[in-house]
Amino acid sequence: MGYNRTDDANIINKRYMDSILFEERLVGSVAADTETEFLGERFSMPIFMPAFSHLNNFGGRSLTGLEEYSLAAKELNVLNFVGMVENDMFEKIVATGAKTVRIVKPYADNGKVRDQMQFAEFNGAFGIGMDIDHIFGMNGYDICMGEKMTAQSADMLRSYVEASKLPFIVKGVLSVRDALLCADIGVKAIIVSHHHGRLPYAVPPMMILPEIKEALKGRDVRIIVDCGIASGSDVYKAIALGADAAAVGRGMLPYLEKDGTEGVKSCFGHIRDELRYVMSFTGFSKVSDIDDSALRFTR
Residue limits of the FMN hydroxy acid dehydrogenase domain (predicted)? Predict the structure, then answer.
């Protein structure tokens, strides 16, 4: 959005993530297993696909980037997400066999919101949700790809939750306040995110994450983190600070552009292997056991 470097939330986020260090706990430690549970399903790793939108065909290949990374999600057995797409493309994504969550934009046209959510449910989506950090633009409500966005009240979000039997996920939570409101209306998971720095000086997701985790204690709400996740160490830090899983976004794009499905599988394989390595070095054999006791903060 043209911010200078001092208010670039991506730079702030990267510096914070890199300030978190690990201690080693090797005595009695065993090789770790990255398999995890999320919303009642077993996945091979707590590393999920991003909710990308508008990916065309890379390198003249027959499938769009959205379809290619969805195929990778299916073959890796990781949870898949997709963002702003029309129903015909969503149908193709579901046809890959990936367990897919459709994240719908906060369209001013509420009929379109409901149509896309209903289409997702009727066509085999794993879950549905909304990207609330796309409500505002620099000149008021956002306009994305020519589509006007608008405000979403707690009552509006509750109506989406109640209209579907699928788990509802809110993307763009970056405060205890919004996390608690989501819990109150029946949201099953939140994505702690600043959407690649849409807000200048946005707090790093991992900085606010422990507060959100504590506030949601005893509530049936799962937590995903994104923004700058590019390595197994990043994923480990997110889980140690309170997340159930992390989503890899722009870090996988070079692999996707170059080698399609196989490139994404390679990228996720490297991240999974590093996560397993760090888990083993810090004494955690299962994802569900990871806590913050092996973290050290330099700032």
Answer: 1-299
